[in-house]
Amino acid sequence: MQSLNIRNAFAPRTRFLPSFICASCRANNGRAVTISVVVHAKRTVFSKLRISERGGKIKGKKKTLQSPVTTELRAPEPGEGAGTPPPQKKEVGGTWLFLKGQQKKLLALLSNLPLAISEMIALAVLMALGTAIDQGEAPDFYFQKYSEGNPVFGFITWRWILTFGFDHMFSSPIFLGTVALLGASLMACTYTTQIPLVKVAKRWSFSYSSDAIRKQEYSDTLPRASIRDLGVVLMGAGYEVFLKGPSLYASKGLAGRFAPIGVHLALLLIMSGGTLSAVGSFRGSVMVPQGLNFVLGDVLRPSGFLSTPLDSFNTEVHVNRFYMDYHSSGEVSQFHSDLLLFDLNGKEVLRKTISVNDPLRYEGIALYQTDWSLSTLQIMKDGEGPFNLAMAPLQVNGDKKLYGAFLPLANGDSTNLKGISMLARDTQSVVLYDQEGKFAGVRRPNSKLPINIDGVEIVVLDAIGSTGLEIKTDPGVPIVYAGFAALMLTTCISFLSHSQIWALQDGSSVAVGGKTNRSKEEFPDEMNFLLDQVPEVVDSS
Q1: What tens digit of pLDDT does each residue of 84-113 get?
Q2: What is the DSSP letter of 190?
Q3: Alpha carbon distance 423, 450 (integer Å)
Q4: Where are the alpha helices (DSSP H) in 226-286?
């Protein structure tokens, strides 16, 4: 053992009480040094140790020593180093590591399955509310229909509707925010779960342990077989086969691993298209009598902050004709509008007769047949005319429509204005009443059959209808259609099983094992069928 001479081994950088340190030192065979230090102080002591070495080796930094170890320790002068802060090493990339940690926490939170389910439930509830509550009406409409005494679902009144934007649900901040949150959850799940699974599935690895192979979901041993013959059989069954020495790896159905990513992307496409339609479209409705015109841009109103007008908004639409089809019972079965479209120069660019579920589409604008009414009753009076009487809708019980017109008759004996009243439910017939309100008769338009009421001869020439059109631009529709097509395709692909097989040539026998993520009951039957096709190797001797 070699002794070392130690004096004040530490040069402290803070004040301390006397006899604060005890030290002992010993060396074993001149090669290793052991220093034991006991410190008694209430403050942290920082010290510097200087060592001169001339022999042996000290574990740590590799140095060649040519003489015995001499340790020189110097005590600091009074006041030396007092108050001097210890050198601090700046943490390299500390901010970046913090951000990375926060990113991982955020991704873990967003990819949480219960959170995603909660978001989908919230969206379903909001969409149900948007279906139950009339959309796009004036505030007065909600004041009357959703008053305090008539709440939706027992508690939602006009205050809720107007405060949270439920009158335009599908472009409201609460709905769009929920959609964005669900989209973020889908992307986080794809990044943290689905993509790593695909990366793992794409890796092909060989197994060189028969015991590991026999621990697979399915395992068997071919007593006299060649691993190359097994590879040929698996290739014929559609497997991708890899051979390396005595080991084999085969797999098929990898597309099934990609399908969940495709499903997530399809859902993102659908939500993106729906969001674009909600905040980037134009909508409007108009009731136009037969024979009149209107300009598309005068009807359309933006629905969100991404709405951008199109050049086709200057197109003029002429309602050439409106007519209806009827059931044998007399009820309206279908209504049609013959529309002509003209550009700024008055040139006809398109003509089409539209009906319910058969719209007109022109340069990103769609015109839908949604409603109808009666606007004018054309008559002859005492051989004079024709006269056009405006028809107004009347409020009656039930859903059936009723329209009325009034033909005033001069009466010098009374200050009360009297005349002939005419009522119609559609364009098939008109019911006439005299000045006293008594039934006078029924006439069909265009029948040219006169009727005499209170000395006045009336001929009903025509009942002119008005077409109700819903007009909109919807830039998100192609994206939504593409998303649904991708969703159906990837959903079908997701049912493909991803099967993996490992094999090892162990002498004259082959150990085979495999697993699959789907069709687990059918997989053993498939494996048995394939292994039965592997030829037996016969020893020529």
Answers
A1: 555 555 555 678 888 888 888 999 999 999
A2: I
A3: 16
A4: 227-236, 255-280
Q: Residue by residue, what is the 3-state secondary structure of 92-156?
A: CCHHHHHHHHHHHHHHHHHCCHHHHHHHHHHHHHHHHHHHHCCCCCCHHHHHHHCCCCCCECCCE
Listed range (32-41, 156-165, 196-205, 264-273) with the worst mean pLDDT: 32-41
Alpha-helical runs (H) found in 371-432 = none
pTM comes to 0.64
Q: What is the pLDDT of residues 181-233, one digit of tens each?
A: 999 999 999 999 888 888 877 777 889 999 999 999 999 999 999 999 999 99
pLDDT digit string, tens, across residues 503-513: 999 989 999 99
Q: Quick one: 230 exposed, middle or buried, by C-beta within 10 A (0-12, 13-18, 19+)?
A: buried
Buried-exposed string 59-85: b where 16+ CB fall within 10 A, e elsewhere: eeeeeeeeeebebebeeeeeeeeeeee
Per-residue model confidence as pLDDT tens digits over 331-362: 889 999 999 999 989 999 999 999 999 999 99
Q: Angle, to 10 degrees, between the axis of helix 113-132 and the axis of helix 173-189? A: 150
| Alpha-carbon span 426 to 305, nearest angstrom | 41
Three-state SS for 177? Answer: helix
DSSP state of 422: E
Closest CA to 272 of 188, 191, 179: 179
β-bridge partners, 504: 247, 511
Instruction: Evaluate whether 411 touches 418 at the Cβ level (below 8 Å).
Output: yes
Q: How far is CA 24 from CA 3, 118, 250, in A?
A: 10, 66, 65
Q: How far apart are CA 535 and CA 533, in angstroms?
A: 6
For residue 191, give the DSSP letter: I
